[in-house]
């Protein structure tokens, strides 16, 4: 399972990696657990970055905006 020569990239759902780790042999288990840790770190980082990108979307009207709306 830990073949570094293969250059394919796939997304394996974490629940599937957990199942494989519970049922595979010791040789594959280490590789699966490393992959699972990597996936979990990426998911955590993605959530943190996404929450930092979005600001409060509350609408604040100023004089200019209200004036423009009245003219249209």
From TrEMBL:
The Protealysin N-terminal propeptide domain is annotated at: 9-50
What top-level branch of life does the organism fall under?
A: Bacteria
Supply the InterPro entries for this chain. Answer: Protealysin_N_PP
One Pfam family it belongs to: PLN_propep
State what protein this is by name: Protealysin N-terminal propeptide domain-containing protein
Lineage runs:
Bacteria, Pseudomonadati, Pseudomonadota, Gammaproteobacteria, Enterobacterales
